[in-house]
Automatic annotation (TrEMBL):
<dbReference type="InterPro" id="IPR017871">
    <property type="entry name" value="ABC_transporter-like_CS"/>
</dbReference>
<keyword id="KW-0813">Transport</keyword>
<keyword id="KW-0677">Repeat</keyword>
<dbReference type="InterPro" id="IPR003593">
    <property type="entry name" value="AAA+_ATPase"/>
</dbReference>
<dbReference type="GO" id="GO:0090374">
    <property type="term" value="P:oligopeptide export from mitochondrion"/>
</dbReference>
<dbReference type="Pfam" id="PF00664">
    <property type="entry name" value="ABC_membrane"/>
</dbReference>
<dbReference type="GO" id="GO:0005743">
    <property type="term" value="C:mitochondrial inner membrane"/>
</dbReference>
<feature type="transmembrane region" description="Helical">
    <location>
        <begin position="84"/>
        <end position="102"/>
    </location>
</feature>
<dbReference type="Pfam" id="PF00005">
    <property type="entry name" value="ABC_tran"/>
</dbReference>
<dbReference type="InterPro" id="IPR036640">
    <property type="entry name" value="ABC1_TM_sf"/>
</dbReference>
<dbReference type="GO" id="GO:0005524">
    <property type="term" value="F:ATP binding"/>
</dbReference>
<comment type="similarity">
    <text>Belongs to the ABC transporter superfamily. ABCB family. Multidrug resistance exporter (TC 3.A.1.201) subfamily.</text>
</comment>
<dbReference type="InterPro" id="IPR039421">
    <property type="entry name" value="Type_1_exporter"/>
</dbReference>
<keyword id="KW-0547">Nucleotide-binding</keyword>
<dbReference type="GO" id="GO:0015421">
    <property type="term" value="F:ABC-type oligopeptide transporter activity"/>
</dbReference>
<keyword id="KW-0812">Transmembrane</keyword>
<feature type="domain" description="ABC transmembrane type-1">
    <location>
        <begin position="1"/>
        <end position="113"/>
    </location>
</feature>
Amino acid sequence: MMNEDASQVATDAVSSIRTVASFCSEKRITRIYEQKCEASKNQGFKTGIAGDIGFGFSFLMLYLTYALCFYVGGQFVRHGKSNFGDVFEVFFALMLATLGVSQTSAMASDSKKAKDSAISVFALLDRKSEIDSSSNEGLTLDELKGNIDFRHVSFNYPTRPDVVIFNNFTLHIPYGKTIALVGESGCGKSTVISLLERFYNPDSGTILLDGVEIKSLNINWLRKQTGLVSQEPVLFNDTIRANIAYGKDGEVSEEEVIAAAKASNAHEFISSLPQGYETSVGERGIQLSGGQKQRVAIARAILKDPKILLLDEATSALDAESERIVQHALDHVMVGRTTVAVAHRLSTIKGADIIAVLKDGAIVEKGGHESLMNIKDGVYSSLVELRSAHHENA
């Protein structure tokens, strides 16, 4: 555990070396690493002393046994009570037994580590996941429209059981419509997406898809019906083609990849790259800009052709020009699909068919942009005014 903490500091420093260098924190990181290693070093020192003393004592007993055997055997031969052959038979029997005991004691610490490791491995193997993504059980619908219903849902994250995220949360999302979820940070907007993807199960209440509870649906089939575009897109250290093709099982043709890229406004910038679709994006997509990464992620979602599109603040980390391009791509993708968008920017929110305002884990306002703005002292109008004032000051 102590070595893991030190390794984590080193890993974070190497993977974020630009941030470390920009803050001139090399010495600070080195000092933190040394502090993390200090506890491990002290523990290793104590363990080493105990192990060395035990190791030395075991060999001391081995050689003392040799000496005792030779002395007693010599006395027996001297007084005629035994012969040379019998003495050495006993000597070798005792020597081999003592050698086995000494080696066993020397490896006692290693055997304890092996035992603890085995317990940990078998505990993981025996653990049953509440949501088993490899399960083939569950229903599949012949035809999916995309009606979504949250009915009296209550939920707490397992790591924060005392923090209530949803309490009697109810929301209807009609198929083919775009619903924007807005509210202050921590009000549960992204949790809606996590529950729809079945990353978690609600503590109580039901979530229905076309009138069927999603718990009864096959989890792989359910996730194939949804396309997720996050605020920080995850790209793999591979080519652009491979990252787009990741969105679909089986073989993907060149035409499908290019069509998805064109639909996401990514084809133009990809074609301008020296290696085109064979360009490597680097670790975590570091070779591409934020807008380029987002468009590749959208192309991956388009290739999946989902009935339900989930957008978790897909444009909030982009500059104005990149946001315009990405939003234009999303507008095309959202047509004919049920879309759930977590958004902060007004440009994204205004175009939604329905805007749901969350506060303290419940829907407090719901409707179109104009109708919500007409509510006197409304939560939505207050949020819009605050953001408008923030942009003006910026």
